[in-house]
Design brief:
The longest helix has 19 residues. The protein has a domain of 78 residues. The protein contains nine helices and two strands, in the order ααββααααααα. It is 49% helix and 2% strand.
Length: 197
């Protein structure tokens, strides 16, 4: 994310905007989820490639019954992929209930978050990021430090520090009985972000 030398052409938007010496992949984004490819897909495929030399490998993929739209993706149409949760008609909620029933509770994290995966993912919803800011200050501090180290802003709309300003302002508005949406809210938020900059 920070230090990997990444080959970029001179016409790359990154080089044009941030300079030729921009190291690392930066934060992942909706069109460039390098972390999934490099940290999950590539290591898995490297491991399975060796097994496939001797065996026919069946992969069991954890897509839930209420996520069947994911089966339409090309990568999930592999005939050697098995989707047991879909076959058993188990939704995400069913799976959580099953896990809770067998003693897995993730220390209450599913009470705070809809999904428990990469805590630092910029593709999380604002609600998930609010929970991170509110309930996990050490992780939030790390997020802000990382955001300063990379060439790419945490999200297209906010840096981590700007999110902090927004979340504090939301809390202030809620405590005063004011809405946290609408023209007046966003005008004042914009002013506060400009002051912080």
């Amino acid at each position: 994310m920070f230090d990997a030398p990444v080959r970029r052409g001179k016409d790359s938007p990154i080089v044009r905007r941030y300079g030729a010496g921009s190291l690392g992949y930066g934060w992942p984004g909706p069109r460039q989820r390098w972390c999934t490819t490099r940290l999950k897909d590539m290591p898995r495929e490297k491991f399975l490639r060796e097994l496939r030399k001797q065996y026919r490998v069946k992969e069991y993929i954890g897509i839930a019954a209420d996520e069947q739209y994911r089966l339409e993706r090309e990568r999930n149409k592999n005939p050697d992929h098995v989707h047991p949760l879909v076959d058993w008609n188990m939704t995400e909620e069913d799976c959580l209930r099953y896990c809770y029933g067998h003693g897995y509770d993730w220390n209450g994290l599913y009470g705070q978050f809809k999904r428990v995966s990469c805590w630092c993912c910029p593709l999380q919803s604002l609600q998930e990021l609010r929970q991170l800011y509110k309930n996990h200050p050490a992780l939030w501090q790390t997020l802000k430090e990382w955001d300063k180290r990379t060439w790419r802003k945490f999200r297209a709309d906010y840096s981590a520090e700007e999110l902090e300003v927004r979340f504090d302002f939301e809390e202030e508005c809620l405590n005063a009985g004011k809405p946290i949406k609408g023209k007046a809210f966003f005008s004042e938020l914009k002013r506060r972000l400009e002051v912080e900059a």
